[in-house]
Amino acid sequence: MSGGASKNFRTPLGLVRGRGAAKSGTEDFWLQRVTSVAGIPLTIMAIVIGMLLLGRNQAAVAQIIGSPFVAVIMLGFIICTVLHMKIGVQEIIVDYVPDESMKLTLLLANTFYCWAVGLICVYAILKMSFGV
Amino acid sequence: MAETTSPARRARAERPLSPHLQIYRLPLTMLMSGFHRITGFGLYFGTLLLAWWLLAAASGPNAYAKFEWFIGSIIGQLLLLGYVWALIHHMLGGVRHLIWDTGRGFGPQEREWLARATIIGSLSLTLIVALVSYLFMGGVR
Q1: Would you tell me the crossing angle of helices A68-96 and B28-59 to the nearest 10 degrees?
Q2: Domain annotation covers residue A12
Q3: Considering Cα of A115, then A117, then A118, then A119, what sign does the dihedral take?
């Protein structure tokens, strides 16, 4: 494209096709759909659980979240959410950040943040479940 | 708009450009597209509220009292309301995207209807959640 006597008829699209900004394939696209479908019932149940726990004291909240049924739903909600938001914000970063090093830094920060939030929530739920 | 410095951009062939944000008046479908991304990004940080809640509940009465104090404050309640609305809005927007993924719902009337259903649905469902929470569950304390 830049200078040169030979004419290049390849369009910019042709040059980048197959290597998008994230440099990966369709796995993220598909996982985003899977987690969005799973997210519908999980979100509804998580909101209902949150409403049922309003105004209860810590012991009651910990006991209810730690009960098997609620714990599994909340674990599902957290894992689904964290996977979904990691891909979602990754998409936002590659859309808006043209600078390569800044982009990689933010992608790294995104991964760390999502893992941290996910680990905190999973640990807390398991702690309440196993009562240690 | 600042001139782009990328050589590839400068050497770009003269082709028609797709009109962007500044050109269009703001249709509801475009607004809802933006809302979907913005609510998703808001939820990204809103999840910290959830993490704090779970960690506090797992830690003990003192930690939970601190969380309850925050979530019971005006700012906390507004954040929680915003979080719930964003969650519901993003979920309904997601349903819309899943419908589009099947190749349906792109017609002029359909997409307008879907955009309206998303915002009206999210606002009414949030109102219902808030009303039930405060009238029957005792609200945030």
Answers
A1: 130
A2: no
A3: positive
DSSP character at residue B73? S
Neighbours of A6 (CB within 10 A): 5
The CATH number covering residue A83 comes to 1.20.1300.10
| Closest CA in chain A for residue B11 | A2
Provide the domain limits for residue A104: 21-130
Q: Concatenate the DSSP letters of all residues of A42-75 into one string.
A: HHHHHHHHHHHTTT--HHHHHHHHHSHHHHHHHH
- Residue A22 in this model has a pLDDT that exceeds 70: no
- Indicate the number of domains in chain A: 1
Supply φ then ψ for residue B16, to 5 degrees: -60, 140
In which residue are the tokens 């309003």 written? A54
CA A3, chain centre distance (Å): 42
Nearest partner of A107 among A84, A83, A91, judged by Cα: A91
Mean pLDDT of B36-64: 97
Does this complex have an ipTM over 0.90? no
Interface test with chain A among B5, B6, B53, B54, by most A beta carbons within 10 Å:
B54
- Which residue on chain A is closest to B59 by alpha carbon? A124
Q: What's the one-letter identity of residue A46?
A: A
pTM, to two decimals = 0.83
Query: Is there a domain that residue A63 lies in?
Result: yes
Assigned domain for A9 exists:
no
Say how far residue A67 (Cα) sits from the centre of its chain: 25
- Report how far Cα A24 is from the mean position of its chain's Cα atoms: 16
Neighboring chain B residues of A121 at a CB cutoff of 8 Å: 47, 50-51, 54-55
Q: Do B141 and A54 touch (CB under 8 A)?
A: yes
Residue A15 within a domain: no
Q: Which two tokens stand for residue B118?
A: 């998303």
